[in-house]
Design a protein that fits this description.
It contains 16 helices and 20 strands. By secondary structure, it is of the alpha/beta class. This is Aldehyde dehydrogenase.
């Protein structure tokens, strides 16, 4: 549903491929935001009392509605964010799978029995938190939103969803599609920029905030929640490392690095942001990685998405230029192309050091900065010395090195020999500047509920 109060401004979106106008949508003002929260609060009580099986049935219906509109949403996503068509459709279908998964998991989400007195009974009950605010990103807008919305809705919460201002049309259309099969007020979508998101997280009517986005925004949300008492789930930025041992095939390692650094033009929270390669295989690895980048730059229409906008491109180019000024060498890319849109070439940098911004910060672009290390231990040490804690990947044929990486890397997810590997529903807890709480998987149902302990025993016999 949408509210009818006046709005304060508009969001205008340009197509990252060619700079043409996608469209404009209104920014929700304070009246609309308060109205959305009121509508969600009004729906929350009845929805919480709805049988879990019925909530699961409705979520399955929402998944099927998403299937019917998959092509439409994927095309809209491509126009707004530049995501390659096949990857955009894959993101929508991933969202469908997530909704179906939560439709099955939700009705069997349950508490635990507790051992108490012989003549007493003790158990826990999982109850919905109430009104959940979901703030979702632009880099995979349907898949990520489906996870947060699905988990919140199936556990009996009402949700106010604000999609990123970089993909408001995709988020608004997703909201319309899902809301059509849900009771009024269970899912309310508002469009707006940072001010709208800030207000949503500062109002005391909110019981929980689920956020996927930047670390700076995540910290602001956590500070606001300290005042409102809202529960916060946040998956924020990452600076994921790739550590390459000396016993692996350098060509295969280059393929893995390219997939990790260049997929969706590096605009993935768990993209490879920095590479540590053992000196023994460094030269063939760098040669192969540069070739991987060149192949993507030659065929960017099918292999390399543009960056979401020119503002991000300026940031990416700033990281690369600063690294070069500080001694890094460009093996491929590194130059802003002429023409419309916001493309940036797949870029490989060698001779990178820890003092460079491109190694210390999340670049969020198709850049693979490489540091050559003398040993696996050195690569692991440098990978672990970071303020982020989202994920990391290690390529090695030695089980002892794999086990050491698992023990020493203080991140939510450690991947061995596959940069984007992982089973469906594999939950993780990001750490430090990368966030807190389970942002996906079965454990997200726990985040969306609160536990009540029940104790029952017989009263004493009368007289």
């Amino acid at each position: 549903m949408t509210t009818g109060a006046p709005t304060t401004s508009e969001i205008t979106v340009l197509n990252p491929h060619d700079g043409t106008l996608v469209g404009s949508l209104p920014c929700a003002g304070e009246d609309e935001i308060r109205g959305a929260l009121t509508a969600a609060r009004s729906a929350a009580s009845d929805w919480a009392r709805t049988d879990p099986e019925e909530r699961g049935r409705m979520l399955r219906a929402a998944a099927e509605a998403l299937v019917q509109h998959a092509t439409e949403l994927a095309e809209l996503n491509t126009r707004e964010t530049g995501k390659l068509a096949q990857e955009a459709l894959g993101g929508v279908m991933a969202g469908v799978g997530t909704l179906r998964q939560y439709a099955e998991l939700g009705p069997v989400h349950r508490g635990h029995s507790l051992r108490g007195g012989v003549l007493a009974a003790d158990w826990t009950v999982a109850e919905p938190r109430g009104v959940v605010v979901a703030l979702t990103p632009w880099n995979d807008p349907v898949a990520v939103a489906a996870g947060l919305l699905g988990a919140a809705i199936v556990t009996g919460n009402a949700v106010v969803h604000k999609p990123s201002e970089r993909c408001p049309h995709t988020g608004a259309r997703l909201g319309e599609i899902l809301a059509e099969v849900l009771p009024e007020g269970v899912l309310v979508t508002v469009t707006g920029g940072p001010e709208a998101g800030r207000l949503l997280t500062q109002l005391p009517e909110v019981d929980a905030v689920a956020h996927v986005g930047s670390s700076a925004t995540g910290r602001a949300i956590a500070l606001a929640a300290a005042q409102t008492g809202a529960h916060v789930i946040r998956e924020n930025g990452g600076n994921d490392a790739l550590v390459i041992d000396d016993d692996v095939d350098p060509a295969w390692a280059a393929e893995q690095a390219a997939i990790g650094a260049f997929t969706n033009a590096g605009q993935i929270c768990t993209s490879v942001e920095r590479v540590y390669v053992h000196r023994q295989i460094a030269e063939p690895f760098l040669e192969a990685l540069a070739a991987e980048a060149r192949a993507r730059n030659r065929d960017r229409d099918t292999m390399l998405a543009p960056l979401v906008d020119r503002r991000l491109r300026e940031t990416v180019q700033g990281h690369v230029a600063a690294a070069v000024a500080d001694g890094a060498t460009v093996l491929e890319g590194g130059v802003v192309p002429d023409g419309p849109g916001s493309f940036y070439p797949a870029t490989v940098l060698r001779d990178c050091t820890e003092r460079m911004q491109v190694m210390r910060e999340e670049t969020f672009g198709p850049v693979a900065p490489v540091a050559v290390v003398e040993s696996f231990a050195e690569g692991l040490r440098l990978a672990a010395a970071d303020r982020y804690g989202l994920a990391a990947t290690v390529l090695t044929g030695r089980i002892a090195h794999a086990q050491r990486a698992v023990a020493e890397l203080a991140v939510g997810t450690v991947k061995i020999n596959n940069v984007f590997g992982g089973a469906p529903g594999g939950s993780a807890q990001p750490r430090r500047d990368s966030g807190a709480g389970f942002g996906y998987g079965p454990e997200l149902l726990d985040e969306m509920t609160q536990v009540k302990v029940v104790h029952v025993e017989m009263p004493p016999a009368r007289g």
